[in-house]
């Protein structure tokens, strides 16, 4: 697996490294042939990779153009070369990203597929899409906050095999995505706090522009409404799924006169910020404050105290994204364009019934 900025320009997991110039040249040849033959880039890619779901007449026309342009199927020099996919992230920082990386890479390996991991720090999605075609990859799994409209159009127009993992913003209805049951997971988390006896429950929510964050906030509010608990806007702060922002937001909420006895956090990073805010304010967790998280990455069980959390099935996310992508590459559209996997409540030491001494600052 390739990670890090120092390897971003390397485009393959196995075999000799191709230079960026050669990759662009290969992509340019395929794009030119697509235009001359009057077909999509995806159709040219199918012929290049000897797929059968192309008519004989179209195949013959494209093969002739490939020969005329001197296109060489480099990967066929190695008969044992496995299939390859690209997994592209905004960055490789944070527990959520690392869990998703592991899920994709491990599940792909079980299917005999190699994974190239890259980021958009220095190379935009458009270049990764080009590279996937030029390198003969089966397709691209994209795990970023937002897919630009022009990238969405390019994917649809060229019929490129692409799957999104839990995008923060709604993609085109024609691009498949895999995520989790964010709303249901949030209601389960808040119901756990209600069952413990909490009535003043705050939330460190994600941004309203985030699909996952919005669904988790709606789930929080739905659970409160179901229990007949009024929604208190002062108890809710929206931040990125970020430790530093959550730390500052949690200090604000916990500084209220009638502070919450419990905080539901929309991510592990935010929950860690809440724990640190409680420590700085000398608020004991869970005796004076229960902290509930969403994600259950590796850091959740290592926190002090260990975090109760809604567990995302990271391995299954990777498996499903890889499965859908390979089906697309084989010309088999998914049964549904949006697949949501079930979450699971995991109870640890950060949640408990509200303590008798928790009345907030005087």
Polypeptide structure, described:
By secondary structure, the chain is α/β, with parallel strands linked by helices. It contains twelve helices and twelve strands. It folds into two domains: about 170 residues, Rossmann fold (3-Layer(aba) Sandwich), CATH 3.40.50.2300; about 130 residues, Response regulator (Rossmann fold). The strands form two sheets. Strands 2-1-3-4-5-11 form a six-stranded parallel β-sheet, sandwiched between helices. Strands 7-6-8-9-10-12 form a six-stranded mixed β-sheet, sandwiched between helices. Strand 8, helix 10 and strand 9 form a beta-alpha-beta unit. The longest helix is centred in the first third of the chain and has 18 residues. It is elongated, with a radius of gyration of 24 Å. The N terminus and C terminus are likely disordered.
Helical proportion?
A: 40-55%
For the record, the count of structural domains works out to 2
Summarize model confidence as the mean pLDDT.
Answer: 85
Cα-atom radius of gyration: 24 Å
Q: What amount of the residues lies in strands?
A: 15-25%
Spans where pLDDT lies below 50 across 5 or more residues: 1-19, 356-362
CATH architectural category of the largest domain: 3-Layer(aba) Sandwich
The CATH topology of the largest domain is Rossmann fold
CATH level-1 class of the largest domain: Alpha Beta
Written as H for each helix and E for each strand, in order along the chain, the element string is HHHEHEHEHEEHEHEHEHEHEHEE
């Amino acid at each position: 697996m390739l990670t890090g900025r120092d390897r971003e320009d390397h485009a393959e997991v196995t075999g000799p490294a191709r230079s960026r110039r050669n990759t662009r040249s290969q992509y340019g040849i395929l794009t030119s042939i697509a235009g001359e033959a009057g077909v999509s880039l995806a159709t040219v890619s199918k012929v290049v990779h000897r797929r059968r779901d192309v008519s004989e007449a179209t195949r013959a026309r494209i093969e002739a153009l490939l020969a005329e342009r001197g296109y060489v199927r480099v990967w066929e020099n190695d008969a044992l070369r496995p299939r390859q996919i690209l997994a592209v992230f905004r960055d490789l920082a944070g527990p959520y990203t690392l869990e998703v990386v592991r899920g994709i890479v491990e599940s792909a390996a079980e299917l005999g597929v190699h994974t190239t991991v890259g980021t958009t720090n220095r190379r935009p999605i458009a270049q990764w899409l080009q590279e996937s075609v030029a390198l003969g990859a089966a397709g691209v799994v994209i795990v970023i906050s937002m897919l630009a409209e022009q990238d969405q159009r390019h994917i649809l127009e060229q019929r490129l095999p692409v799957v999104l993992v839990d995008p923060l913003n709604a993609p085109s209805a024609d691009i498949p995505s895999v995520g989790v049951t964010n709303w249901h997971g949030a209601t389960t988390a808040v119901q756990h706090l209600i069952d413990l006896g909490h009535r003043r429950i705050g939330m460190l929510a994600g941004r309203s522009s985030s699909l996952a964050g919005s669904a988790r906030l709606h789930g929080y509010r739905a659970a409160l409404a179901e229990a007949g608990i009024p929604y208190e806007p002062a108890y809710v702060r929206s931040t990125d799924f970020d430790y530093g922002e959550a730390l500052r937001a949690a200090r604000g909420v916990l500084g209220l006169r009638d502070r919450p006895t419990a905080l539901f956090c929309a991510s592990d990073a935010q929950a860690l910020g809440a724990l640190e805010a409680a420590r700085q304010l000398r608020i004991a967790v869970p005796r004076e404050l229960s902290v509930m998280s969403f994600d259950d990455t590796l850091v959740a069980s290592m926190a002090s105290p260990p975090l109760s959390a809604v567990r995302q099935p990271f391995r299954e996310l990777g498996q499903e994204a890889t499965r859908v992508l390979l089906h697309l590459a084989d010309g088999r559209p998914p049964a549904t364009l949006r697949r949501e996997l079930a979450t699971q409540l995991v109870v640890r030491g950060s949640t408990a019934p509200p303590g008798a001494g928790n009345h907030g600052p005087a």
